[in-house]
């Protein structure tokens, strides 16, 4: 008797992308597309209704974005494996998606073979990262600790709060909500943090906070 197929829900706000993925998966033995959704709200509803094994989740969608949907699905249906499938490799998408509960992160320019393997890996509980993202993280982790001169002005208490939340994978929107400030204010704080610490991006800021003990992935 052949094993049950991997039941997959495809979530993307572009119908042509959904149909293309469905056409690919229809040719693959052991995989079955059980439904499709065009936004995060639909995705949450269909996960409860269809109970898929794996969700392919776009991140930028109307009504409720992919990161919010990942958080909700991970909370209410922890057995469902989520693979973020997106065009965005920016830090403020990668970290929040993984922190929200995605088991993998793949860019849409991946080959069909890479997508199929990522689905199998995520289904088995094996975390998977697009090679572009993995290389980026390895570069940051292996970057030598350069003791660059920092500005005489230390981080303010608010900037430390923001840095801690950046390291925990929160987006600017989530940080703004948590601290009850505007997104623009959060962006200004992040810019000040990068300037004061002579860091290039959010990835470096997150790694700095973790190395210095300002934050941990498990909480404040």
Overview of the structural elements:
The protein is built from ten helices and six strands. Helix 2 (40-50) packs parallel to helix 3 and helix 7 packs across helix 10 (202-211). Strands 2-1-3-4-5-6 form a six-stranded parallel β-sheet, with helices on both faces. It is of the alpha/beta class and 220 residues long. The longest helix has 15 residues, at 183-197. It is elongated, with a radius of gyration of 19 Å. It starts with 5 loop residues before the first strand and ends in a 9-residue tail after the last helix. The protein has helices spanning 15-26, 40-50, 66-76, 91-100, 112-123, 131-142, 157-167, 172-179, 183-197, 202-211; strands at residues 6-11, 31-37, 54-57, 81-86, 104-107, 128-129. The protein is 51% helix and 13% strand. It folds into two domains: 6-138, Rossmann fold; 157-211, Winged helix-like DNA-binding domain superfamily/Winged helix DNA-binding domain (Arc Repressor Mutant, subunit A, Orthogonal Bundle).
